[in-house]
Amino acid sequence: MKINFLMTGLLGLITVTAFAQKGELNTAQSEYNKYETLKTQKSMGTLAITSLKTARTSIDKAAANDKTSALPLTYALKGSIYASLAFNDTVATTSMPLFTTAEEALKKAKELDKAGENKKLIDGAEITMAQYQLNKGVKEYGEKKYDLAYKSFDYYRTILPEDTNAIYYTGIAAANAGNWDAAITNYQKLLTTNYSKKAAAYQDLSGFYLQKKDTTGSIKVMTEASEKFPNDAAISKRLLEMNLQTGKQSEVLGKIEKTIANDPKNKTLYYYAGITYTQVADQATKNMKGKDAAATAALTKSRDEALAKAEAMYKKALEIDPNYFEANLNLGYVLITPAIDLFNAARKLPVTKQKEYDAAMKQANTLFDAAKPYLQKAVDLQPKNLDALTNLRTYYLGKNDVANASAIKKQIDELTGVSK
Fold first, then answer.
1. In sequence order, what are the residues at sequence separation of 6 or more whose Cβ sits closer than 8 angstroms to the Cβ of residue 30?
2. Which of 51, 138, 287, 394 pairs with 329 at a CA distance of 20 to 30 A?
């Protein structure tokens, strides 16, 4: 009878002990569930953290006991609890060990959970881990630690591979870190998603290729962008500039003129043609540096011919839409350019060349006055546009109208914060 009593007592002790350890696992789950519910309520923040800490105490006990330590649920819960602890800890030195513990626990949970019974718990924990890395990356990016930010954002992206913010953040951090291959890969992925700012993304991606000195790749990206966004002036202008820089002026103009023939009422096409001729003129001006008198004269002639063609194209655009800001702005620039050259050349003449000086200044004034209506119109349309204001100020300087030039300078300073 005594032996039987002892055996019964021993079995009872084992049962109670096992129940106690299973009870710790149940407590951990119950308290973690309570935390998940309370954390969504601002007024319950303190209670939520208390439940999370209680959950940690219980899961640590369950993980230390032979009866429950190897259970998939134990690892899944431990990963979830520690991920949340890391997320709520804003101090890197104390939060990172918590994050590492969560990462190790979740890895083990995936290995053991063959039936997928804890998938929802594991997935939720991984999203918390992603949020932790997102916050970490934002802080690192703000501190200009772009290499570290890239790694943090990439962790976030790995867990949420279709999240457009995750892809964008990873790509932009990679670019700032000079990791052009990673930047290109992420931006290429970004363009396959429903990202809302694809036009800007195309331009960024084009720039990444240029950083790798891959002009062909850059032009290819901008060509695709122009097909996707045919009415985006910035994209079209950049593609034109890139093609012109690679010596494709004739090809560009041929395409534009052919398109104009099929769509003669499209103001944008005339504007693009104007830009192209303007770029040709600007390139001729750049090529004058260091050239002898004969070469300079030939380049000047080419520049003036290109400017005249640009003028005609911009005027065509304005016939269709007189309030076309970009056409007014660029036409004013085209008309004022030769005026500035004459003005500067006249000022360099010696005092013995008074007659030549007077003739040059008279011609310059005529050209300045021809540009004025378009320069003024551009400012009227966009009073805070710095390019428009600068061009109009140049006109007043050329006309020796100090009062108006000073007034516009004040506007420019206010817009740029110089006067503050």
1. none
2. 287
Residues 56, 48 contacting (CB under 8 angstroms)? no
- The residue ranges of every structural domain in the chain are 1-143, 232-321, 342-420
Tens digits of residue pLDDT in 103-131: 999 999 999 998 999 999 999 999 999 99
**Whole-structure pTM over 0.85, yes or no?**
no
Nearest-angstrom CA–CA distance, 371 and 309: 15
How is 235-279 classified by DSSP, letter by letter? HHHHHHHHHHHTT-HHHHHHHHHHHHHH-TT-HHHHHHHHHHHHH
Q: State how far the Cα of 244 lies from the Cα of 286, in Å rounded to an integer.
A: 14
* Average pLDDT for 242-270: 81
Q: Right CATH number for 342-420 from 1.25.40, 1.10.10, 1.20.1530, 1.10.3470?
A: 1.25.40
Q: What pLDDT is stored for residue 239 in this prediction?
A: 81
Maximum alpha-carbon separation in the chain: 138
Distance CA 177, CA 185 (A): 14
Nearest to 335 by CA among 293, 286, 392, 385: 392
Classified by CATH at the fold level, domain 232-321 comes out as 1.25.40
**Are 232-321 and 342-420 in the same CATH fold?**
yes
